[in-house]
Design a protein that fits this description.
Blueprint lengths: L2 E6 L3 H12 L4 E7 L2 H11 L3 E5 L7 H11 L4 E6 L4 H9 L4 E4 L3 H13 L4 E2 L28 H11 L4 H8 L3 H15 L4 H10 L6
Parallel strand pairs: 1-2, 1-3, 3-4, 4-5, 5-6
Length: about 220
């Protein structure tokens, strides 16, 4: 059986390097490469891959939210998150979003093939140096509350937070997400209240700190 893979990373060199590693294997085929989460979702819907390799920090739609949406769209597709971030919050958010694997970019090349083959077999795979927060993989996972300040936001609010942090106007966000500009402004105000920030600069700083958008 050939394993079909989509790669999502906002750096072309990273995508090319991962593709080279994967396609050196006779049983793995890269069926698409995406520069952001929305492109990844479109390619996944088109190709129905077995695995999506998902960077966290991508423009337009980050890898965590893309993984969450992908789980609803194609529940059989497995997500492996690749990141330079090795904090319990980032790992928690990835698992919470449905990721079955988590690799640090510094060691992803060495562990990539093993990770892909593991998740295809319905096994979880966490790379070297990745420490999974206690309780995240058992039945008690759903009972863990408020591990991230982002948990207070709805999925729509997290999407809008990313667009705001990337400098898009309310009109641009409204067009992208099929909302009215007034609704976007309401969401923006609600986000600021929930996160306890009082300015756009503080909102952008929060988004960068939590890898919602690339620096």
């Amino acid at each position: 059986m050939t394993v079909k893979v989509v790669i999502a990373d906002d750096h072309a060199m990273v995508r090319d390097g991962l593709k080279m590693i994967l396609e050196a294997q006779d049983d793995i085929e890269v069926v698409g490469s995406a520069a952001n989460g929305r492109e990844a979702l479109g390619l996944a819907e088109l190709h129905r891959p077995d695995v999506v390799l998902m960077d966290i920090s991508m423009p337009v739609l980050n890898g965590i939210e893309a993984a969450r949406l992908l789980g609803k769209l194609l529940p059989a597709t497995k997500v492996i998150v690749m990141s330079m971030h090795n904090t319990s919050e980032h790992i928690y958010r990835a698992i919470q979003a449905g990721a079955k694997g988590y690799l640090l970019k510094e060691s992803a090349g060495d562990e990539l093939i093993e990770a892909v083959r593991a998740v295809v077999k319905r096994q979880n795979y966490f790379g070297s140096g990745v420490e999974v927060p206690a309780g995240m993989l058992g039945p008690e996972c759903q009972s863990i509350q408020k591990k991230s300040p982002l948990d207070s936001l709805s999925q729509r609010e997290r999407e809008i937070l990313q667009q705001v942090a990337e400098g898009r106007s309310s009109a641009e966000i409204a067009s992208l997400l099929s909302l009215s500009p007034k609704s976007v402004d309401t969401y923006r105000s609600r986000i600021m209240v929930k996160l306890g920030v009082t300015s756009s600069s503080a909102l952008i700083k929060f988004a960068l700190q939590h890898a919602i958008t690339p620096a």
